[in-house]
Structure formats: C-alpha cells, structure tokens
Automatic annotation (TrEMBL):
InterPro entries: Kinase-like_dom_sf (IPR011009), Prot_kinase_dom (IPR000719), Protein_kinase_ATP_BS (IPR017441), Ser/Thr_kinase_AS (IPR008271). This is non-specific serine/threonine protein kinase. Keywords: ATP-binding, Kinase, Nucleotide-binding, Serine/threonine-protein kinase, Transferase. Residues 23-287 form the Protein kinase domain. Residues 291-332 are annotated as: Disordered.
C-alpha cells in the first residue's frame, strides 16, 4: 500500500487495521485540509490514542519538519487538565504523526448544532475551562491561532456540579510552520473565517490577544447561537472582522443582561491593545456581567506573572479526575 496516496484519497478505510509507528489504526474521527485524525491503538502501552497524520507533502519540506519537531515538543511540555496531552510526535515512512490522548465524547461544534445556544451559566462554565487552557499555552509561548468550536472537546464531567470536562485541542502544531514554509502565500492566513482576528487577516504579527479575539467569537456563538459576524461571502466576512462593530449580544439573546454587550465589544476590539490582556480576564468580566459577580470560588483572573508562580494567590492546577486519566476506551 502506498500510504502517501491513500492518506488523503478520500477512502479512510484503506488505513483501518494498518500499523503506523507502533499504532494500529481503528477508525477515522476527523479530517482537515492538511491532516487526518484516527482513533488508534498504541500497541506498546495497550491504550487508545488519537493519531493525527499530516499530509505527506509537509514531511518533504525540511523547514516544516524542523518547526514541527520544535512545536510538538513545546505542546507536549504543557501539563494542564484542560489541554489534550501530546504523547508522541515523529515521522515514519515519509508521514509526520502526532499521538494524543483520545477523549471519548463530542466537540463543542456538535453540541451547539444539536442543542443550540447554551444557558449562560453553562456557557461561562465551559468558557472558563477553555480560557485557563489558552492562558496556560500563552505562558508557554504558544499561540493557538485557530480557536473554534471544533477544537473544543466536551466530555462527561464528574458530578452534577461539574457536568462536563472541557479540553482544548489542535494547538496549531503546524499553523505557524505552514506560514513559514510556503504552504501559505502572501495575503493568506491560517485560521477559520468565523473566528479569525483582524491582525491575522491583515498579516500583522500575532500574539496571545489573537486568541482572545477568536475565543470571544466562540463564546459569543455559545450564547447567541451564531458567530458575531455573518455575511453572504468570505470577503464580506473578512471585511466585517476588520472594520465592522460586532452586533450586541442582547440583540440575539434579549434575556442576557445588557452588561454583557460592552464585555464582548472589548474582547472583539479591532486593535489588540484594546482587548482583555488574557482569556481569563475576559471570562471574569463576562461572569460578572451575566451573574452579578459569580459564585464564590469562581475562576480568578490573576496577573500573567502570577500564573507562573502557583502560591501567589492562585490555586495550583488540579489534576484531571480519575475518569480523565490518559487511557480512554471508545464507547461501545
């Protein structure tokens, strides 16, 4: 079998049952323009993993391979209960691969498509978990660049007080590399149109505040049932992100307190300097606007330096619950 021709041939069954780098492929669970994700069995440790296989042409680019190795190591170094862990990354038979924890459940995209807008308390609870993951990545020098509902996994929680456990995935291990190696050209960007920050569109340098914008677009959608900007064609949508004011959330969701509108206006500001400095800052402001300050024990918004010094007024990150240990077995 020629793996290069079958990987993106549109016939995923060709790889089912095959072994790649010590993993036996069981089922395709996701697909994009540059990668396919499979549920696979780690034959060495006897555990189920999510195996992401990158398009073969990426492995043929020396610059991309070096960036891939560097970024994979950086992502694997993050130990956070709301970030999908990277177990291994490498190359075999001309194919780059990443093995990650397999999370049984759904993603936020499917959840919104099935249930529509979320209750404010649920939306804020989910947002707080994603925000903590994004800020942790930023503290490690990683910018996600493609925050969207499809990259937010929602799995079963531990009890009625914690009904869901949320993971952020697809940390753009290749996104920056693509822009540096000729797979994107001048005037293009890597991201998803509904959630892309103005500076990504214009080709300006991006930092953590790019993720604040994309994350705010996602949270807006969880409450309104649609992203902040909706246009008939892609060019009009790109223009809206760069120049149009976001519509007030309360126009789509009148039952939400009007104080939420200026919170989103700030998070979706065109200039990065005008946005919240962190995702947790944004969530704290949204919680205060929608609940009048939130319950005791709500997510605190520490200064960026505090997040790197547990004990300076911040609780240490809690380990994942027992059901979220590294081995996830597929549901029957």
């Amino acid at each position: 079998m020629n793996r290069e021709t079958s990987l993106f041939s549109g016939r995923p069954s060709e790889l089912v049952g095959q072994q790649i780098a010590g993993y036996r492929i069981e089922q395709e669970i996701g697909r994009g323009g540059m990668a396919v994700v499979y549920r696979a069995r780690d034959l060495r440790l006897e555990r189920t993993v999510a195996l992401k296989l990158l398009a073969p042409e990426l492995a043929r680019n020396d610059t991309f391979r070096r960036r891939f190795t560097h970024e994979s190591r950086a992502a694997a170094a993050i130990d956070h209960p709301h970030i999908v862990p990277v177990f291994e990354a490498g190359e075999t038979d001309g194919v780059l691969y990443i093995a990650m924890r397999y999370v049984a459940g759904s993603d936020l995209r499917h959840l919104l498509d099935r249930e529509g807008p979320l209750p404010p308390a649920t939306a804020v609870r989910v947002a707080a978990q994603v925000a903590s993951a994004l800020d942790a990545a930023h503290d490690h020098g990683l910018v996600h660049r493609d925050v969207k509902p499809g990259n937010i996994l929602v799995s079963r929680g531990t009890d009625s007080d914690h009904p869901e456990h949320v993971y952020l995935t697809d940390f753009g291990l290749t996104k920056k590399s693509l822009s540096l190696t000729g797979f994107t050209t001048v005037g293009q960007f890597v991201g998803t149109l509904d959630y892309v920050a103005p500076e990504q569109i214009s080709g300006k340098p991006v930092d953590a505040r790019c993720d604040v914008y994309g994350f705010a677009c996602v949270v807006y959608e969880t409450l309104a049932g649609h992203p902040p900007f909706r246009r008939d064609d892609d060019m009009a949508l790109l223009w809206a992100h760069q120049y149009d004011d976001p519509p007030p959330l309360t126009e789509a969701r009148p039952g939400i307190a009007a104080q939420a509108d200026p919170v989103f206006a700030k998070a979706l500001a065109k200039r990065p300097d005008d946005r919240y400095p962190s995702c947790l800052d944004f969530v704290a402001a949204l919680r205060a606007a929608t609940t009048g300050g939130g319950p005791a024990g709500a997510v605190r918004t520490p200064a960026r330096g505090d997040r790197q010094r547990p004990g300076a007024g911040e609780e240490r990150p809690q380990p994942p619950p027992r059901w979220a240990e590294p081995v996830f077995l597929p549901r029957p």
